[in-house]
Amino acid sequence: MDFLFLFLKDFVIQLQSPTLGFLIGGMIIAALGSELVIPEAICTLIIFMLLTKIGLTGGIAIRNSNLLDMVLPMIFAIIVGVIIVFIARYTLAKLPKVKTVDAIATGGLFGAVSGSTMAAALTLLETQKIGYEAWAAALYPFMDIPALVTAIVVANIYLNKKKRGTASDATMQESYSKQPVAAGDYPSTRQEYRSQQQDTKDHRVKIWPIIQESLRGPALSAMLLGLALGILTKPESVYESFYNPLFRGLLSILMLVMGMEAWSRLGELRKVAQWYVAYSVVAPFVHGLIAFGLGMIAHYVTGFSLGGVVILAVIAASSSDISGPPTLRAGIPSANPSAYIGASTAIGTPVAIGLCIPFFIGLAQAIGGR
Hints:
79% of the residues lie in helices and 0% in strands. It is mainly alpha-helical. The longest helix has 38 residues, at 140-177.
């Protein structure tokens, strides 16, 4: 009962917060056919400002904290990012009318992190005056990059196996139609073997370019820049006078844009299997609960705060809306963007922001005895 009360209280607070209010407002005006357009250049600047601020916060905290305290949460963040991809590979991919490669891409996007969802969680934690390690935001890349890399590698391995299987079937059928050769004379067999070996090398998945592509993405670049500046320099003056005061206002504008985009993506989601809708509602809670459980282990072992556990759970519940889509488009070009982007933006993000954030905050408060 305590948990239900706390969840409902936090849910009401979240409904009244500008974060979710602007998200819902964006969906409503898009549904009404509004022609409001926020220029892409402004959105890019807002994203840069928000994630640079989060990076600076984490960098400053890392500079002033014990690095050993960060090791276990970082390891858990990596594990969760990888697990989420395999959950999609062996659940969503098994459902009717769902293509395996689309399911893997969806898992990669849900395993990657939404900077805007994380920013919304940080804002609500501060509103509720729930303490957390400032460096907890730095867990972002430790979940984001492994998820994207795992998704692209798993998808390419699957596609290569499928391609080789198709080629083997064709070769076998062709061999049946040929006349038998003399004993000991196997020139075509050797040539085919060498060709298959070369084809395997040509299609081998290269992991480092995937990591480079992720690091060059606008979201991670901004966050890692802020992180590095926070660790290596002393940016407290510009942080307090410029980045921190603008944070919530800029976040509200981004939520408005995301709401409008979420509504537009609903049309794309109707074109693919309806199982994506069910997955997009259930998966954020499942992913978040896995991360919450691992976070509680870190809480009891290293003293990781309950607020930090919430952040770990929320970034696991989130799905990438900035860096993930272009990375997956390039890494898994055969996957259908209407499936994985529609599932993420139209349903996954509103569920993560509107339901998962108050859910995990309420769960942490119930455990903490508040």
